[in-house]
Write a structure and sequence with these properties.
- The chain is an alpha+beta fold.
- It has a domain of 140 residues: Peptide Methionine Sulfoxide Reductase, Chain A (2-Layer Sandwich), CATH 3.30.1060.10.
Length: 213
């Protein structure tokens, strides 16, 4: 009986340590690439990504909202397990999922709020991101305008923006009174996101979870 109690106590105290180890392993990355619904959808399909949060990145405004986030870019905070997917892979995939030669926005969404940006958490991420941008320039033979900036702020967007591409509620859109997930698909197609990425990157393009090659 004593052995059983002792073993149970060891298991009980081990649980918090196991949880701490799992938390310590998680790393974070922040990317802006136009509409955050689309960026979130892209990253959710990558093995090793454990969570994505749509939000507003890089600005100084307190409590930014969807209708007022001046100085911020629509961005996504990505939690990932570095034992499964590396930051280098994430940043290179991100570059191949955006229009990295467009500095006026992304696809049909125009303006500073929609430009592509790589926000880095530390020097290691910065070096990897800069190397990935340099390699992308060589691959395309064009100047990459996506800046690499140090991470400053990130504010989660309103709840209705999270996992928007999966939503089953009906919404009134220019496409009609349809399910949110269908509205997202129609928007993505009408915006020309995947078509432009394929045009720019060819076989190296990453479009909503799928490499074109």
């Amino acid at each position: 009986m004593r052995k059983f109690i002792f073993a149970a106590l060891i298991a009980l105290f081990a649980l918090p340590m196991m949880a701490f180890t799992a938390q310590a392993k998680t790393q974070f990355a922040v990317f802006a690439g136009g509409c955050f619904w689309c960026v979130e959808s892209n990253f959710d399909k990558i093995k090793g990504v454990t969570e994505t949060i749509s939000g507003y990145a890089g600005g100084t405004m307190k409590n930014p909202t969807y209708h007022n986030h001046e100085g911020n870019q629509e961005g996504v905070k990505v939690s990932f397990d570095p034992d499964v997917v590396s930051y280098d892979t994430l940043v290179r995939t991100f570059l191949r999922s955006t229009d990295v030669v467009d500095d006026g926005g992304q696809f049909c969404d125009r303006g500073d709020a929609y430009i592509s940006v790589i926000f880095t958490m530390d020097d290691e991420q910065r070096k990897l991101a800069e190397a990935a941008v340099a390699d992308a320039e060589k691959a395309l033979g064009q100047k990459i305008v996506t800046p690499v900036r140090p991470f400053t702020t990130f504010t989660a967007a309103e709840d209705y923006h999270q996992n928007y591409y999966l939503g089953q509620n009906r919404v009134l859109t220019r496409f009609g009174w349809i399910k949110q997930a269908d509205a997202y698909e129609d928007y993505r197609k009408a915006c020309g996101r995947d078509a432009r990425v394929k045009e720019l990157w060819g076989k190296a393009a990453y479009t909503d979870g799928k490499m074109t090659n």
